Amino acid sequence: MPSFQRICTAACLGGSCISLGFIIGRVSKKETNELPPRQSHAENVETVSACNPLSKAGPNLYSLFTLSAATPYRTSAESSVIPVQQPANAVQNMVKYGFPSTDNLRSYEDFMLSYDRRNRVPNWVLEHLTPEKVTVNEGIERSKMQFVEDESVHAFHRATNKDYKNSGYDRGHMAAAANHRQSHNAMAQTFTLSNIAPQVGQGFNRDAWNNLEKYVRALARKNKNVYVCTGPLFLPQYENGKLFVKYEVIGQNHVAVPTHFFKVVVVENTSGQLELQSYVMPNQALPLDTKVHHFLAPLDMIERAAGLNFFQNIPKGTFHKVNSPPPIKY
Amino acid sequence: MPSFQRICTAACLGGSCISLGFIIGRVSKKETNELPPRQSHAENVETVSACNPLSKAGPNLYSLFTLSAATPYRTSAESSVIPVQQPANAVQNMVKYGFPSTDNLRSYEDFMLSYDRRNRVPNWVLEHLTPEKVTVNEGIERSKMQFVEDESVHAFHRATNKDYKNSGYDRGHMAAAANHRQSHNAMAQTFTLSNIAPQVGQGFNRDAWNNLEKYVRALARKNKNVYVCTGPLFLPQYENGKLFVKYEVIGQNHVAVPTHFFKVVVVENTSGQLELQSYVMPNQALPLDTKVHHFLAPLDMIERAAGLNFFQNIPKGTFHKVNSPPPIKY
């Protein structure tokens, strides 16, 4: 079970060996068999589509579910239909292969997310990347962008810059800023704190995790479409024979520090073939020379641990490659 | 700040003093001022209602959001509109004062819930109680009922009886079985594992928590309507000057053992006056003589910790009583 060994290696790097007990009994021997049943978990989406038979999968459907980024929190008396401001096809493209969940959705110009109000971090963030989107645009300067609170979230459940200050953690992007170079607005929106989770800086956010993000952009440059779902994990550890989930919370609003992060990537090459790559990285300083393929992990492990299903509209057996190691460069 | 002292007392009972740091700065001095802004957080509900203007708040609206209990997990190809099998007004009555959240909703004959797929326990369970519903019905025998898996949840995220077996924890009801005596089916559905969370048995589920449930039924017997929202909390503790959330997970599916449970109760008396009572209890053996009023806790503390908003359709200042101690008997 090479991929299971890899995830164990990944989880144990840095000295903190995380239990993956509930995977062991279920991981299939062949990587191509590791995928779970390809079933849709987007019940709400399906049932609402019935409400508008003329728009079975059109943009109107998704606008019913999502708040655009600029929508401040408002009372029920004030709200009605909330205009979605992103390009008409942006969300459609992102959710082409399914919704991971339908809780507290927010749609931005070039990514969307589900927000975890209990932990003040995303549940998941979904992006659709193309060669054009990741091409460097000299006019857009990341250094001028600022982290901002998400005013569409009730103040009780909102992460703030103050929560991160002096915490020792970076404000880590889930949708990477450099994935969204089409417009100033698209990149600026990745600095919304709903797209952010506390990450170890040196050795992780600025190194190993950054390498994974760079690798995904390299994939996007060389392929037709890349779909990326990124988010936190809170994995348990053994202590005196029992399993415990343990994670730090920072700031007055108790922003959760994930123990790990996942990244699930579907690559559509220029021939239309689909490849799956799924990664788990522990949120800790990692050896600088670690290749990204050390963090490949079975998709079903991530799905169980995150409580999510990814890209469930892709039928089982469709992928021509699953968790094949990337070229040696990465 | 009497209510804050109470919650500290509650949290410290049993020797495990839980940090409530993020509450301290925000608890108002007067109980009547402790309520947060009364705002709706049910964005999805509002936006979907616009999809069907003829049914602004009718049963069709809610049927779009909820799966009935008997609906097995199915693929997107199989699902369309899912019939809701409970009495037409049951869900409407439960959500009269608002939805706590709109993630993974399940509606049963006499209660509804939001399921936490990551933790395999409910996010919250909502009930509407009346004198009739809690009246003992001799024909319905609780002892004959069995705990069952929720087949509407994907197998990756479903709690099973095997997970609880030999764990040392009770299968604790969120919607109490004895609150639903109208029919065999209504009570039997409370034994679905989506309505269950691991609870300490002796001293908690069978004692202190049971006393709170009995007290709520006593309220239901004496008043016109009682609305109850119940669920788990995962509260942080200080360790070496930092705050950590730590909780056990049990079984192959890693069912989370909550550190605490909340119960938020809105009582409408026969004059139509509304009273709010909100409780937090640590999931541990508690002294047998502890009165329920020791566990009264500010609503905003629960809302922040749970990532939820409760009964948000009730305007601020409407309650004629907030967290007034119950009679000495309890």
From TrEMBL, chains A, B:
Enzyme class: hydrolase
Cellular location(s): Mitochondrion
SMART domains xrefs: Endonuclease_NS (SM00892), NUC (SM00477)
Cofactor(s) for this UniProt protein: Mg(2+)
Keyword terms, alphabetized: Disulfide bond, Endonuclease, Hydrolase, Magnesium, Metal-binding, Mitochondrion, Nuclease, Transit peptide
Active site, renumbered: 173 (proton acceptor)
UniProt cross-references to InterPro entries, sorted A to Z: DNA/RNA_endonuclease_AS, DNA/RNA_non-sp_Endonuclease_sf, Endo_G_ENPP1-like_dom, ENPP1-3/EXOG-like_nuc-like, His-Me_finger_sf, Non-specific_endonuclease
Enzyme Commission numbers on file: 3.1.30.-
Residues engaged in binding Mg(2+): 205
GO terms under biological process: apoptotic DNA fragmentation
Ranges of residues in domain DNA/RNA non-specific endonuclease/pyrophosphatase/phosphodiesterase: 107-317
Cellular component per GO, a single term: mitochondrial inner membrane
GO terms assigned for molecular function: metal ion binding; nucleic acid binding; RNA endonuclease activity; single-stranded DNA endodeoxyribonuclease activity
Location of the ENPP1-3/EXOG-like endonuclease/phosphodiesterase domain: 108-317
Main localization (coarse): mitochondrion
Family: Belongs to the DNA/RNA non-specific endonuclease family.
Protein known as: Endonuclease
